Amino acid sequence: MGTVPSALKHCLSYQHLLKEQLWIGEPAAPPPAVPHPGQESDASGLPEYIKIVEVGPRDGLQNEKVIVPTDTKIELINRLSKTGLPVIEVTGFVSSKWVPQMADHKEVMMGIEQHPGVRYPVLTPNLQGFHSAVAAGATEVSVFGAASEMFSKMNINCSIEESIERFEEVAKSARNMNIPVRGYVSCALGCPYEGNVIPAKVAEVSKRLYSMGCYEISLGDTIGVGTPGSMKRMLEAVMKEIPLSALAVHCHDTYGQALANILTAIQMGVAVVDSSVAGLGGCPYAKGATGNVATEDVIYMLNGLGINTGVNLYKVMEAGNFICTALNKTTNSKVALASFNTGAIN
Amino acid sequence: NVVPTPVKIHLINMLSETGLQVIEATSFVSPKWVPQMADHTEVMQGISKVPGISYPVLTPNLKGFQAAVAAGAQEVSIFGAASELFTKKNINCTIEESLERFDEVMTAARGANIPVRGYVSCVLGCPYEGKISPAKVAEVSKKMYSMGCYEISLGDTIGIGTPGSMKEMLTAVMKEVPAGALAVHCHDTYGQALANILVALQMGVSVVDASVAGLGGCPYAQGASGNVATEDLVYMLNGLGIQTGVDLQKLMDTGTFICNALNRRTNSKVSQACCRL
């Protein structure tokens, strides 16, 4: 488009450019003490505040091939704790045989600095994992259901119904100990084995998880095949069963659709978005393809929409730079890529 | 790296088989400034022109216009900008002076019955000026539309825009130019392109520019991406049930061809996912 100028050196630095445009910068105001996502919206119909759930240290690292030393994981989480992110998924109390990356779950849980006002949920697939998690100091847990029978079978070797029974045990113990449980529903927009997933099924599984006491249901586009069209249809079905304020979206960017899908969700009033610093975590179902959407790119978009997140984008980019250097990989965040390559961030 | 003429011709011919209705073929600019486009005449004359498909070419001035017509062009494009500094750095004149130059092209095009498409660069931000006011974008768009451009393509040249700024800018422009004459040309440098395009569609825009395999980096951010990938755009539109007439598989095959020829990875996530590359 147009001629390529050679006067690159006269460009404003991106730091200047973006600060001026307020896409990157200090958050506008501290988040409300008890946010009511979904209940407050501005004139454009979008939520005023969106809670970002950072899944990089767990979902992200779990899907990275290189095994990350425990110290590095702890350092990453500590850096993320200083960015304003309200929730950081720390690790998974899963069998180290199946998920070697999470073998050091106890050390990580006990080694991190727990900042006041920040929550540190951990994945607990069953009662045994739950007990280990609590023993290690966890104060919030997550369980992972799926909207696809085949995915459930291939992933955790049981039917959806059997997995729900397992989670009910966890939910019951958690309730007794006053520990909040977050429920995930995988394959909400498509399954690598079954293909199409019907919205009614997603709604049904979500409702089971919500009824057993999960305070929030995170709807995951596990293979990133969703588009704004399928996102809308799925959310319409789920919103009939679950209150908006209890919903979150967990979009993968495997087909480049994540931000458009997230935009659609927030236009419908969803106010909790999962993302992963530097877009950590590839896709186990499409070799070489990307997975999680990058936290930096999500925050950039939300800042541009005037939506408060409480998160400092520069600090997230720095944390992303740290982990990418440690992993010896290029970031999957386009915001970070553009900012770093103009020398704005060192 | 300059792409050989036969490769360019083959690329355009493959694109012509995908169902795309408009394929910007080349640019009649000075080879001194843009060596990649030095073979504009050969490309224009070498491609197989499929009936029903339009092959516009860039013409920065009257001289370029005349060369384009002589080479067989039947549609041309002119590039304005919403930023004075950008215009100065890019084509060494003011916005007003650039519009005067374009007026010459418009007059000649009218005389030859050749449609002219107008581009406005920097609509959501400028690498030199920073913030760009929506009113300025509307003003330049209006001028180009009044001059006779049948369509105005609004370009987020550095990809810095978000759905928020896209909405604000389009609201201003739509007061001056009908939605039916508008297009968006989004860059994906900050990963915002598809979200920005979605907002534009929601506001009634129905023409979208994109580049196969996301070809074209950003000259203002080394290593960063530029154009949004046509494959990723078509994937989204398919999912929305919006007709484009484009065959996504053929498009991906075309992307594979040009990436192999350029010895580079695709910038299209759809291609990356599908082809397991």
From TrEMBL, chain A:
Name its GO BP terms in alphabetical order: ketone body biosynthetic process; L-leucine catabolic process
List, for all copies, the residue spans of the domain called Pyruvate carboxyltransferase: 50-317
SUPFAM superfamilies assigned to the protein according to its UniProt record, in alphabetical order: Aldolase
Q: Name the pathway it acts in.
A: Metabolic intermediate metabolism; (S)-3-hydroxy-3-methylglutaryl-CoA degradation; acetoacetate from (S)-3-hydroxy-3-methylglutaryl-CoA: step 1/1
Alphabetic keyword roster: Lyase, Metal-binding
**Pfam name, any one:** HMGL-like
Query: One GO cellular component from the entry?
Result: cytosol
Q: Which GO terms describe its molecular function?
A: hydroxymethylglutaryl-CoA lyase activity; metal ion binding
Gene3D superfamilies per the UniProt record, alphabetical: Aldolase class I
Q: Which domain of life is it from?
A: Eukaryota
**E.C. number, please?**
4.1.3.4
Task: Give the catalytic activity.
Answer: (3S)-3-hydroxy-3-methylglutaryl-CoA = acetoacetate + acetyl-CoA
**What parts of the sequence cross the membrane?**
none
UniProt keyword Oxidoreductase present: no
**Per the similarity annotation, which family is this?**
Belongs to the HMG-CoA lyase family.
Read off the PANTHER family from this record.
3-HYDROXY-3-METHYLGLUTARYL-COA LYASE, CYTOPLASMIC, HYDROXYMETHYLGLUTARYL-COA LYASE
Instruction: Please name the NCBIfam families in this protein's record.
Output: PRK05692.1
> Under which name does UniProt file this protein?
hydroxymethylglutaryl-CoA lyase
Organism in which the protein naturally occurs: Psilopogon haemacephalus
Gene of this entry: Hmgcll1
TrEMBL record, chain B:
Return the broad EC class.
lyase
**PROSITE patterns per record:** HMG_COA_LYASE, PYR_CT
Q: Which GO terms describe its molecular function?
A: hydroxymethylglutaryl-CoA lyase activity; metal ion binding
Q: Which reaction does it catalyse?
A: (3S)-3-hydroxy-3-methylglutaryl-CoA = acetoacetate + acetyl-CoA
In which broad location class does this protein mainly occur, judging by the first location in its UniProt entry?
Answer: mitochondrion
Subcellular location(s): the record lists: Mitochondrion matrix; Peroxisome
Name this protein carries in UniProt: Hydroxymethylglutaryl-CoA lyase, mitochondrial
Traced from the root, the source organism's taxonomic lineage reads: Eukaryota, Metazoa, Chordata, Craniata, Vertebrata
